[in-house]
Amino acid sequence: MSEGSELFNSYEQEYVVLRKSLTKILESKIPTLRGEEKKVASRAAERELEEADEIVEQMEIELHNLPQALRARLQSKLRGYKAEMSQLKKTLKNVVSNSGERDELLGDHTVLDLDSAGMDQRSRLLAGTDRLQDSSRRLQDSHRLALETESLGVGILGDLRSQREQIQHTRDTLFEADSSIDRATRTLKSMTRRMMTNKLISAAIVLVLILIICFIIYMKFF
C-alpha cells in the first residue's frame, strides 16, 4: 500500500477489503448458488460494488487535497482501482444477465432495506461522511492558521519597516552631527591661528615701542 494521508489510507484499506469480498462473491460464491440464494448473493454484490465505487470517489476527492508530489505517486494507484471497479461491474453485469434476474434485483427495494448487509453499508457510508467532515474541518483549520500566519507576517514586516526608518533617521542625525563637529573644528583652528597672529603683532608693537622709548632717552641725555 503506498504512502499517503491517513484519510486516503483508510479509504484504501476499506476498498481492499470490499474488493476481496466482491471477488470472492462473484467468482466463487454466486456461480455455485441457485434460485433465491443466488439473488441474495447478487444483491449483496451490488451493494458492496456501490460502496466500493463510493470509496473510490472519496479517495479521488482526498487526492486533490494532498501535496503535488504525493498526489502524483497516488494517481496511478487510483487509476488502477478505477480499472478494477470497471472490471467488477462488468463481471456483476454478466452474472446478473446470465441468471435472468436483474430486473427483479433492481426493483426489490424492500428486501434491500431489511437486509442486514444494507445496514452495514449505511454504517460505512456514515463513517465515510464523518471522515470527510473531519477532513473539511482540518482544511478549515489549516486555512485559518495560514491567515493568522499571514497577518502575523504583515505585522512583523510593519515593525521591521518602522525600525528601518528609525535607524535611517538616526544615521542621518549622526551624519549631521559629524558635519557640525567638522565645521566647529575648522572654526576653532581658524580662531587659534588668528590668536597666534594677534599675539605676534602685539609683541612686535611692544618691541617697537620699547625701541622708540630707548632711542628717545638716548637722544635726550646724550
From TrEMBL:
Membrane topology category: Single-pass type IV membrane protein
Keyword Membrane: yes
Transmembrane region(s): 200-219
Coiled coil spans: 42-98
InterPro entries: SNARE, T_SNARE_dom, v-SNARE_N_sf, Vesicle_trsprt_v-SNARE_N
CDD domains: SNARE_Vti1
Alphabetized UniProt keyword annotations: Coiled coil, Membrane, Protein transport, Transmembrane, Transmembrane helix, Transport
Main location class: membrane
Domain T-SNARE coiled-coil homology per the UniProt entry, residue ranges: 124-191
A Pfam match: V-SNARE_C
Location(s), subcellular: Membrane
Similarity field: Belongs to the VTI1 family.
Protein name: t-SNARE VTI1
Source organism (scientific name): Basidiobolus ranarum
Encoding gene (name): vti1_6
